[in-house]
Amino acid sequence: MALLELRNVTRRFGDFAAVDNVSLSIEAGEFFTLLGPSGCGKTTILRMIAGFEFPDAGQVLLDGRDLVDIPAEKRPIHTVFQSYALFPHLTVGENISFPLRMARHHPADIRKRLNIALEQVRLTGKAGKYPYELSGGEQQRVALARALINRPRLLLLDESLAALDAKLREEMQVELINLQREVGITFVFVTHAQVEALALSHRIAVMNQGKVEQVDEPARLYGYPRNRFVADFIGHITMMAAQVEGVGHSHLHLSVAGLGEIVTPLPQGVAAGDKGVFAIRPEQVRIGVQAELAELKNHFTGEVHSLLYQGDVSVYRVRLPNGATIEALLPNSAPGGAELFKVGAEIKVGWRHDAGVFLHE
Amino acid sequence: MNDERKLSRAARVHRWLKNVASAAKTRRQAVKKRSLHGVNEHSEPVANAGLASAAVFRLPVKWLVSGPPLLFLLLLVAIPSVIMVIASFRYPGEFGGLAPLIAADPQILHGLTIETYQFFFSDFIYTEVFLKSFAMALATTIICLVMAYPLAMLIARSPKKSRNLMMLLVILPFTTNFLIGIYAWMIILGPQAALNHVVNVVLGLFGIAPVQLLFSPFAVLIAMVYVYLPFMVLPLYTNLEKHDPVLLDAAQDLGANAWQRFWRVTFPLSQPGIFAGAALVFIPAIGMFAVPELLGGTGDIMIGNLIKEQFLGTRDWPFGSTLAILLTLAVLAVVWLVAKLSARGGRYA
């Protein structure tokens, strides 16, 4: 049995369905992420799990038990809020031990568990400080320790890394993964940052307009997006309108107007004549001179349209004969080799037969 | 009236004066006249000292901006305060006002003395009036707090649109002069009014003798609360309105029930608002004289009434000044205490 289950959950605000018939199942010990643009309903789902919102239809079940009658303060579910919501009038120690004091634990027990928690988030010696005296990263760790101290069944993280700067965010990502592994508590993480979702999660549910578009492991989500929304939302991708010419044993032959034939992996349930889009990730696209690319199943001639130097990699945008622009990622492995191809130069573009994906219309 | 007799220091002072000075009445009268100008004579050096500091006005433009209010405070607060302090150490004139500071005739009562302060502490009745006034102001403050807190919370947690209207309703009583409000209370609480009848009928059911609502400490307290309630609501609302609602969500999420959420989060965070409101109510309430004068009984006088009586009734200016100085010191002590407490609670704000 899944630890947490959402069954056909709907939540409306007026005429607007913030969450529209969503079903999800989250396993114990999982790091599960709800990913989507702002307003997609992910935070509403989180608030329903926490007990601050209630579904208009459907059920939220914890260990198979409907949570509808259990108020937020009685649920074994804690939240790390986006703003951390640390109590400004309480010290770090008082903040972290807050749930234990609410549950009227014995003072000796509180002290013992507080010391363990402080050590766990590397805040030993800061128990007497006030939240405003801490850095953003430290405040984040206080919020984590506070939410974890009485071992909830489920930890909800609401955009919890959004307030940190890029460098600190990366550090906290690593810390979060380690912490989750260490405490073994199920994490449900809400974010609009796809990089964060890919880095942290065991599984990701991509949401759009109140509906779940796809639930999958990060690599599958990235490699095999189910539809245009998921493909576009996660990472960079080039898309071209395409039609299925023929269905092979393991490959699909597509025709792209003005470009020609493309060979791509065979998805399920595709028949000749189907219309859709061909989508390919920039890192799968190779550019260079004729000889290097001739062996690839798919190769075309294009013109360098623009170049974006990003330090570790350069992003080339190449205009294809059909007028479409395709992105290609080139690692800058040779120092100083930032501009291998000049803007306006004619260039060969190609990708392997197992690269890219065909998405139904 | 017994109280008045007890409080009339002037009578004793006059008797005492006769023993000390046997000079002719006319001479004393002449001195008396001069002493009435004493206040002005004395204020001159103080005023000049103030003007000497005008040198700073030559400095930057900021003095041009802060100058007028500073001058205003200097003329109407600082100088009168100094005058009051000095007046409290002087002798009273025989027919009221002040005795001269310097007199050509050494037989005439003049100079400085701590007699009025000794007098204050020699008779417990004055300390008692102080304590009663403190108790009345404290009761007013506590009742205002208990009544204003839920109201401020209700307003702060109402939809943004209706908050301004609700605050307007809180401030609305200010548009009526408070004396008119107090006269209204005289009618409401009067012995002929329905309220008094109802109260006595109810008391009769329990076998308690009928009471008179008007001219009682109860009437004073009601009117004081009526006058000062908005002063408590305003700072409380301003504070509560700023609270981040996510803190209450967090507290609930971490297992706090409604009661715990209030006592562990809302209440401690509202401490600066409570201190501000308490100061705004307590300080003017302790000096209040109109309400006890109009609604109180003979035993319900407060320091304000005592001071007023010294200046306008018995014309014992030194003693009136002494009472005023002691009241100011007592209030300053309270303000200092409140500031210290709120500084402790307001670290995080």
Please explain how this structure is put together.
- The complex is a heterodimer of chains A (361) and B (349).
- Chain A is an alpha+beta fold.
- Chain A has ten helices and 20 strands.
- Chain A has helices at 42-50, 92-96, 98-102, 107-120, 136-148, 166-183, 194-200, 218-223, 228-233, 290-293, and strands spanning 4-13, 16-26, 31-35, 57-62, 65-66, 77-80, 154-158, 186-191, 203-208, 211-216, 238-247, 251-256, 260-265, 275-280, 286-288, 298-309, 313-319, 325-331, 346-351, 357-360.
- The longest helix of chain A has 18 residues, at 166-183.
- The radius of gyration of chain A is 25 Å and the shape is elongated.
- The relative contact order of chain A is 0.11.
- The model of chain A has no long low-confidence stretch (mean pLDDT 90).
- The longest helix of chain B is centred in the middle third of the chain and has 33 residues, at 124-156.
- Chain B folds into two domains: 2-113, no CATH class; 121-345, Orthogonal Bundle (MetI-like fold), CATH 1.10.3720.10.
- In chain B, helix 6 packs across helix 13.
- Chain B has helices at residues 2-7, 9-20, 25-52, 62-88, 115-122, 124-156, 160-171, 178-189, 194-205, 217-242, 245-253, 258-269, 271-286, 290-295, 303-313, 317-345.
- The chains are: A alpha+beta (361), B mainly alpha (349).
- At the A-B interface, strand 6 and helix 3 of A face helix 11 and helix 12 of B.
**For the largest interface in this structure, which chains are involved and how many residues does each contribute?**
A-B, 26 and 21 residues
Unreliable runs of chain A, pLDDT <50, ≥5 residues?
A: none
Portion in strands of chain A? 35-45%
Radius of gyration of chain B, in angstroms, nearest whole number: 26 Å
Overview in brief:
Chain A has 361 residues and is an alpha+beta fold. Chain A has helices at 42-50, 92-96, 98-102, 107-120, 136-148, 166-183, 194-200, 218-223, 228-233, 290-293, and strands spanning 4-13, 16-26, 31-35, 57-62, 65-66, 77-80, 154-158, 186-191, 203-208, 211-216, 238-247, 251-256, 260-265, 275-280, 286-288, 298-309, 313-319, 325-331, 346-351, 357-360.
